[in-house]
């Protein structure tokens, strides 16, 4: 799924923004977060939902990681997981990185 | 309160155990069959004018939206006919937004100017899908049956200026498929977020005009090549969806993602259907939202349960290893072409009735048909067809 191109490695000081084409919201009947776009929907697993929820306020990746660490102190590989996810989300066009 | 649609009542409350865990994620609201265009490929029923006298009110649509949302609906398609004929569209969109829907306006744009589009956006509209019948005025207006091209271009630009997500949907058939390159270039220039190249399907008026509109296999091959070349040249700039008409494939489409699993359509006069063409299938009782609530309709009605699961399947579908991929194809098409909605969709080359499709393709290519004329979709034609049958 990742774009077959040489991406610059992501830096944690970069600010993440949800692409305006997508709407992020909690869906009560599905008990998960979703991304909505023209005639389509992406169901997000818990980790993806927690990360994207924090992409709505123009925070830097470092700020997002810090916030997640507070909420999930037992998650060992959190920083790496966040970076990996955001790289994929960026390649998919869900988020923009400044 | 007598006009409100059915809510929970004593008679409805003995619901029975839920028969499905699937949710109607996609609600298609056909707000009116009235339309200023006269497209001969339209999938609305031939007798569409009779719904005009019995359209749901604003409050009734509010209730439909609320009930469907409670069942899990999140994508709302506002369609028809032409949804812009509804003067309460701003209110409907506002209510849908309040309920948390993602709203898609599926429209010709006739019935709105840029100012109205701005109001619709302010009311909460999330995306506009604009239909095009050609890449220039001559072809577009010929097949729309109505002068509309210039207006569509103007409204497309207005949507971009408002930063409203915008999709251009080019409806393709024999008469305009040669314009594919121009269509794609036009969409790129106008900044469409996505482009749909929608080869027509054969329901309603489209079925009536099938012989005159069906492209040839050569036209489709050329079109698909052009499309792929465009994708290569402009990779990543704009997503292009190109769907080959199923007649020219050897497997059917997984119709409505499986009957009664994902979609619910509500017609302008309040009928609930698993798909917008299902009203044409004889012998199925069609529930009315004024008489039954949507939860009962989704879970318990005979029409929504008619083709759930695979117990209804006949051979070859019943034993087919691909049945969970395409569910045996389209029920409406099986009914229309073979007389039995539980048959294999004859498009499938495993169907013993595939010959019907091959014959239809052959017939459509006959030169003598050039003398025939398209039947354009309008109340006059609808009346005439009713009298003929």
Order of helices and strands of chain A: EEEEHHHE
Determine the oligomeric state from the structure: heterodimer
| Separation, N- and C-terminal Cα atoms of chain A | 22 Å
CATH top level class name of chain A: Alpha Beta
Largest sheet of chain B: 9 strands, mixed
User: Strand-residue fraction of chain B?
Assistant: 5-15%
Strand order of the largest sheet of chain B: 7-6-5-4-3-2-1-8-9
Number-wise, the strands of chain A total 5
DSSP E strands of chain B, number: 9
Name the beta content range of chain A: 15-25%
Kindly state the percentage of residues in helix of chain B. 25-40%
Helix content of chain A: 25-40%
Main beta sheet of chain A, described?
Answer: 3 strands, antiparallel
Which H/E pattern describes the elements of chain B? Answer: EHEHEHEHHEHEHHHEEEHHHHHH
- Give me the CATH architecture of chain A, please: Alpha-Beta Complex
The count of domains of chain A is 1
Number of helices of chain B: 15
- Principal-axis shape of chain B equals globular
The CATH topology label of chain A is Outer Surface Protein A, domain 3
Mind sketching the topology for me?
The complex is a heterodimer of chains A (98) and B (389).
Chain A: E1 16-18, E2 23-27, E3 32-37, E4 40-43, H1 46-53, H2 61-71, H3 78-91, E5 95-97
Antiparallel strand pairs in A: 1-5, 2-3, 3-4
Chain B: E1 26-32, H1 58-70, E2 75-80, H2 89-99, E3 102-107, H3 114-123, E4 127-132, H4 137-144, H5 149-161, E5 166-172, H6 180-190, E6 194-199, H7 205-208, H8 210-213, H9 217-233, E7 239-243, E8 263-266, E9 272-273, H10 294-300, H11 302-305, H12 323-326, H13 331-338, H14 354-364, H15 379-388
Parallel strand pairs in B: 1-2, 1-8, 2-3, 3-4, 4-5, 5-6, 6-7
Antiparallel strand pairs in B: 8-9
Helix pairs in contact in B: 1-2
